Amino acid sequence: MLNIVIFGAPGSGKGTQSERIVEKYGLNHISTGDVLRAEIKNGTELGKTAKGYIDQGQLLPDELIIDILASTLDSFKDSKGVIFDGFPRTIAQAEALKKMLADRNQAVSVMLDLDVPEEELMKRLILRGQQSGRADDNEETIKKRLVVYHSQTAPLIDWYKSEGLYAHINGLGDLETITGEICAAIDKVK
What global pTM score does this model have? Predict the structure, then answer.
């Protein structure tokens, strides 16, 4: 099983690159953002709870996310592996993911860190908000999300380095170059 964590600040290109990896390697894609947006759109209790956190630019409680991921992962039959997009976001979540996978005799194969400078992230997210109408892509919420990312999520880099699973990816440049760098990192662990 090829289990990949794709990592980076909001707007770093995780979704775009995940689509390319899914296509090339035949993996399943779990985007916590997409799963949560679907729950919110459908007006489920989980969606209502999640919306409260998201509107404040905050992260959701770990137990909630792990339960969603475990259920989604278990729904895939004959899977070659999974890309975790937007999760984990804290060291506690990384440890919970490691345990959840270990309970299924699996492990994370590699963590891909899409590194993009903050001013480029702001440009990308504001443009995405204008194009898609995503309510959380406005300057005030983006700034909050980046603060949360730097304080709570960035420490994962060192955690995954200590696990021997870290791969730095330059998230600037054309899509093909970035995808090529990602595929080289995946092929090393395949």
Answer: 0.85
DSSP 8-state code for residue 137: -
**99 tagged catalytic:** no
Q: Which of 37, 98, 128, 144 is catalytic?
A: 128
Domain total in the chain: 1
Which residue is catalytic, options 20, 51, 134, 161? 134
Domain assignment of residue 183, given as a range: 2-189
The span from the CA of 128 to the CA of 140, in Å, is 15
How far apart (Å, rounded) are the C-alpha atoms in residues 133 and 20?
24
145 is catalytic: yes
As a whole number of angstroms, the distance between CA 114 and CA 6 comes to: 7
Residues 140-178 have pLDDT tens digits of 888 998 998 888 888 999 999 999 999 999 999 999 999
User: Catalytic: 37?
Assistant: no
